[in-house]
Amino acid sequence: MKKQFNQDVFDLLYTKKGVLFDLDGTMIPTNDLWYKVDLDYFRNHGILIDAETLHKDKMDALKACANSSDLYVATFDRLNKQYGIDKSGHDSLAEIMDLAFDRQVNLNYKPTVAPFLHQLKQDNFKMGLVTMTTKEALDVYRYWNQEIKNSADMNEIFGDNFVTTEDVAKDKRKPHPDSYLKMLDMLELNASECIVFEDSPEGVEAGRRAGMDTVLIYDDFWKERYHELEQMTPYRIHSYDELTK
Q1: Is the separation of the CB atoms in 34 and 210 below 8 Å?
Q2: In terms of domains, do 172 and 76 share one?
Q3: Looking at the structure, do residues 14 and 61 belong to the same domain, yes or no?
Q4: Burial level of 155, CB count in 10 A (0-12/13-18/19+)?
Q5: What is the pTM assigned to this prediction?
Q6: Which strand ranges, in their side-by-side order, compose the sheet holding 18-21?
Q7: 196: helix, coil or strand?
Q8: Averaged over 3-7, what is the pLDDT?
Q9: Are residues 142 and 213 in the same domain?
């Protein structure tokens, strides 16, 4: 059933020229995917852990490493140490990416994303995708994932307007604003002319620090931090059909 129309966010959106999106959790339901892949990773290293415990431990690690120059490398450095795995966070992420491919190639957008993207495209918004995932992971969705290509081809929607983790210095990734500032330069727009959609505390903070109105899209992955997120922005939606005409 369609959510209640959000007139305030809709009106704000249509004062803008550009719309910027995060990827994981914001457009694609990958947060659950990454937990399944993480479980595979730990089990491959002899650590039999249940999903609930891993979720808690990963959330604690993400929060503890929030100010690290490379959030996910630092998170897995911490988790590896916690579970006695003799491996660097960098090498862990490389292994996880290999494990993730088969799952990524079969994902689709969250249910209400594709119609919203087509609406924005039809209404001539400039659009950019700003993610701290790797170019390699993004390319799975851009070139290999037929579900995504058939519903709203990223290359047709965003053109060449992509910023990935490789495009900013390690110590300038989200929650720093640099990735969003880079996209503003690519779109040749000012911060006041753009709106950001994000699901995570680090992402919302990055959008705000770049000077843009930032909309929280709720994702269950962050439910334990909803209160924190709700203090960060007055603009919040549960689903993009709150904004579709």
Answers
A1: no
A2: no
A3: no
A4: exposed
A5: 0.83
A6: 162-163, 126-130, 18-21, 194-198, 213-217, 235-237
A7: strand
A8: 88
A9: yes
Q: Examine the domain organization and report whether 43 and 129 are in the same domain.
A: no
Last residue in a domain, options 104, 125, 151: 104
Q: Could you please report the per-residue DSSP string of 78-126?
A: HHHHHHT----HHHHHHHHHHHHHHHHTT----TTHHHHHHHHHHTT-E
In this model, does residue 53 exceed pLDDT 90? yes
Residue 1's contacts (CB-CB under 8 Å, 6 or more residues apart) are none
228 to 133, 174, 202, 225: CA distances (angstroms): 23, 17, 11, 5
pLDDT more than 90, % of the chain:
79
Q: How many domains does the chain have?
A: 2
* Any domain includes 181: yes
Cβ atoms 127, 93 nearer than 8 A: no
Same-domain pairing of 17 and 123: yes
CATH code of the domain in which 118 resides: 3.40.50.1000
Single-letter amino acid code for the residue at 77: D
CA distances from 51 to 55, 91, 207, 222 (A): 6, 22, 30, 15
CA distance 156 to 149: 9
Contact 140, 104 (CB under 8 A): yes
Residue 243: CB atoms within 10 A of its CB come to: 23
- Same structural domain for residues 162 and 186? yes
Give the structural domain span for 232.
Answer: 7-29+108-242
CA atoms 189, 191, 194, 197: torsion sign: positive
Distances (CA, A) of 67 to 88, 95, 134, 175, 240: 18, 24, 19, 8, 30
On the question of pLDDT at 1 being above 60, the answer is no
